[in-house]
Structure formats: C-alpha cells, structure tokens
Design brief:
about 375 residues, alpha/beta, Rossmann fold, Alpha-Beta Plaits, 2 domains, two-stranded antiparallel ribbon, globular
Length: about 375
Amino acid sequence: MGKNAVIVSKCSAYEDQKLKSSVSDIFNRLNNFDDYLKPGDTVVIKPNLLLGKSPDQVVTTHPDLIQQVIDKLKKYECKIVIGDSPGGPFNESRLKRIYKKTGLLKLAENKKVSLNYNTKSTKISFEEGFLVKSFEISDFILNADLIINMSKLKTHSFMKYTGSVKNLFGTIPGMKKAEYHLRMPEADNFALMLVDLARFIAPQINIMDAVIGMEGAGPSAGEKRKFGYIMASTSCFSLDVAGAYLFNIEPDAIPTINQGKKNGLVGNLDEINLYGDKLVPAENTITPDINESDTRNVNNLPSFLANIVNKLLKPRPIFNTEQCVKCGDCAANCPAEAIELNDYPEVDLNACIRCFCCQELCSYEAVDIKKPILGKLFFK
C-alpha cells in the first residue's frame, strides 16, 4: 500500500463476527503483510489507554478489536506485546489498574500475550526533526520489530482531534510528557512536535477504532458518537485525514494535520486513495469550541495590561465541585504546576498554559473548559 492509501471497513458494533469481518478485510488489503513479520519477531500493539476506563465509556481502544488483531497475528508465530504510557505516573501498579479496567488484563490472559510493565526509557537523537531533535522514548517501543498503532477516534480540547498521530504521544513515558507541554505550550508547536514524533516512531500499521468514538469534551469527558467504521493505513497522517472527515472537521483546523500538510507528509482527502467501503461523515458532530488562536497570549501590550487581557480572553479550566472528589490528580499532572488543591482545586491563570491536561486526565469528568464571552468575540 502507498502512504496515501486508507482502508475503510464498515463495522456497526463491537460484535465478534462484525469485528472479525472488518479486521479480515483490513489484513487482506494490507499488501505484503507477510513481508513485515518473521517468526520470533516482537510486535507491539500500541492502543489508546489514556485512563483506566471501561470499554463502554469509549475513552480507550476497544479490547474486542485488539483481540481480533491478535488472532490475525497468531499465525505469524510472533511475540505480541500490548503497551502504552497513559497520562500520569508510569509505574507497574498503575499500569495494572489501567489494564484491568480497560479489559486488557483479561484479554492478555485469554490470548496468552504479554502486557508491558517495562517503564524504562531511552533518549534518542532525531536530527531529522522539524522542531524536536531528540525524544525520550519508552523502551518497550524501541524493542519492537513491528508497531501496530491502534488509536481511538475522539475530539480533543487542546488539539481539537485525537487519532493516529496524537496516539503516539503515549510512546513518551509518564510524566515526561509534561516537559513537552511546557516547552511547546502553543498548539501549532505542540502539533509539530507530534508530527516529528510520528516520523520518528514510524509505525508500520495504523488502525483506528471508529466504531463508536467521542465528540465534544474529548478525549475523556465527551459524549459517545457512533461512526461505524474501522480504518487502517500504513500512514498515520493519511488515516487522520480520513478520521477528520468523519467529524466534518476541515483538516487545516486540526493542528497535527495542518503541520503534516505544511511539511509535505499528507494532503487533503481527495489526494488520499480510499479502499473498501464508502466513507460517510456523521451529521452535526460536536467538536471543542477551542481554536489555536484562543490559546495564544496577546503580547503586543505592556506586560501588566497583557496579563489582565489574557485572563479575560483565554479559555480556562473550571472545576465542578459536585463531581470533584479531591483526588488531586489534576494538580499532580499539571505540567505548569498551576493547580493547588485547597478545599477544591484552584488554578493560577497566570501560570496555566492551557494544555487542558487537567480535563483530559480527570477520571471523574469534573473539569470543564470555559471560553469567556470576550474571548469568543475577540478570536471570532
């Protein structure tokens, strides 16, 4: 398959026969798959395991889809490892809780495949990077002979959309992710970092779980939305363009796709070769009301006035005290250390970098992102 090819397979539900049919279709269309693997190779399946959520909450890649991919890989006599570095601390006890909650612990036991508990990482030079010249990468990824990147179709408050490219941020270990947020707080630079990371990891196969995705306050607090597809590509960039089409989002409005286009890595949907079923976008999808410009600082003012203006214009996290359980995860995972846990979490808006990790990593959906009325008018 060429880098501009995307396989589209309809799949209306997470039922064994429907999943099996779609995954069989995908593997049949992945030309020369036998060339990718030889007996004894290590295959890493990298799902989206953002949080310890059950499959029905549509935050993570569905385990039944992963199971079908495992069944297809078994004939190659390879070693299969499922792994991710979710948001927050990267340690064995937390990984086990997430694997259990997402259904992967049971899956691994039933299918006799490995779950990754190796939390070591290595800093690797990447001189070809457009922006980032080295990455700290989890060793379990570096040890793979083949990587299957299995993303979940969702919206994202900071990046507007999270799919195949964004899923690879989970190759960076645990709290190291915070360093990248701090170094690149604006959406366009953060997206270019993700583009560099995707080029560095270069997963050979990318599969997207778009059977049921998430819209609105994604990637963890949004609403379920049925799309009814499983899609695959050898290019994570092309796969994301197809995913954006399902949301009816203009590709240029998604920072990762926009940066990929600027650097010649992908084109528009009409430049992508679609194989299989017809791709039909959903109607009236809900995407975050946050754009790249909304999170930029207004700097062409005296500093004292700029601070006041930025507070009035920029979106900010709001903590829902009825749902908050005072666990402190928002404060512990804030890259800018801008949140303090008093009676309830409080954010220092001067220090906040608007990455919205607090919303993304809240297990209780107790964080909303509020866009001030003045900001809506200013950035219109």
